[in-house]
Structure formats: C-alpha cells, structure tokens
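Holo prediction — coenzyme A.
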Amino acid sequence: MIEIRTGIFGDEIFAACFAIRWTVFVEEQNVPAHEERDAEDQAAVHFLALIDDTPVATARATHRSPHLVKLSRVAVLKPFRGQGLGEALMTAAHNAYPGTDFTLNAQLHALPFYQRLGYQAEGAAFDEAGIAHRHMVRLSSSSR
Ligand code: COA
C-alpha cells in the first residue's frame, strides 16, 4: 500500500527523505555531498512516499510567493522506479497546494516525466550540481 506523509526539517520524516536523497543524488548521481543539504530544507515541506511502511520516494516543496511553489529533490529509489510512485508523489504535492502554480528545475532526462504532469520547459539548459537542467513551470489554470 502506498502512503504519502509530510514532515519538516529535523523530524523523522525529513530524516527518511534525506536518506533517499543521499542514495539517489549523492551515491547514484554523484552530486557533491555539500550541495545536497541546503538552506531550503529548513523552510520546505518534505513529502515521503512509503510502500508497506518502507520509505521509497521523496520531494520537497517551498513557497516562492503565495501562489507559486517550487518543488525540488524529487527522487525515487532505483528499485522502485517505473511503478507510478514519482507520479503519485508529484500529484500529492500538487494537491497539497490547490490553485497554485508550480516551478522546478528538471534534469533533462526527466523532462517527459514532468511534461506528463502539466509542466512546460522554459529557457535554455543550465548546470546545477554538475547536471544539465531546464526550468519548468506548471500553471494552475492549465493543470490537468
Ligand atoms: N523519462 C521519460 N519518461 C519517464 C521518466 C524518464 N526519466 N521517468 C518516468 N517517466 C514516465 C514513466 O514512463 C511513466 O509513464 P508511463 O505510465 O506511460 O509508463 C510516467 O513518467 C510516470 O512514471 P513513474 O513511474 O511515476 O516515475 P518514477 O517513479 O520512476 O519517478 C523519477 C521518476 C524521475 C522521479 C525517477 O526516475 C528518479 O527518481 N530518478 C532519479 C532522480 C532524478 O533524476 N530525479 C529528478 C530530478 S529533476
């Protein structure tokens, strides 16, 4: 059974989210460890997806303005990809902020994943933590 929980900086949900981020971004994608933890963690709401009580996926949400939320650190543990968990997590985050626009910086390989969820890419590719990204936006008026 899939369950989505939310937490804040310093609690046990955050710890589980950060453990997933470490496995995916630092160990799998070679993001420098000092870049993985940043100041946004303290202001963010942290989403954790569990399957039968096992933490398997995470994302975090931070308000940029009252009607704009930035999602980041979207990660599903490798053995659990391709089962709809990333989509379920994103949908839970969208539903938590009704009537809100969303923004994120997408790794290029993940563009089709976000496009299916209503995001559109804007501008040229840029480097973030050594990985090519594009800025994406999802307007609430065009949400599915
Ligand atoms: N490229 C193209 N399509 C993709 C995709 C990708 N990298 N990842 C998922 N999709 C598609 C799936 O095929 C699926 O479509 P389908 O139902 O027609 O098969 C749909 O998007 C939903 O996929 P889902 O199973 O919910 O995705 P996931 O649980 O595998 O999570 C990521 C997707 C990107 C979050 C996951 O691959 C991941 O954690 N990758 C490593 C970390 C990362 O790169 N995060 C993104 C940072 S911007």
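READOUT: The chain has a mean pLDDT of 96.
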